[in-house]
Amino acid sequence: MNIAGTYAFDAPLQVVWDLLLDTETVAACLPGCEGLEPIDEHKYRAALTMNIAAVTGRYEGTIEMIDLEPPRSYRLIVEGRGKAGFINGTGAITLTAHEGGTQATIDGTVQVGGTIARVGQRLLGGVSKMMMDRFFTCLQKRLAQNQVCLDNVT
Question: pTM value?
Answer without folding.
Answer: 0.87
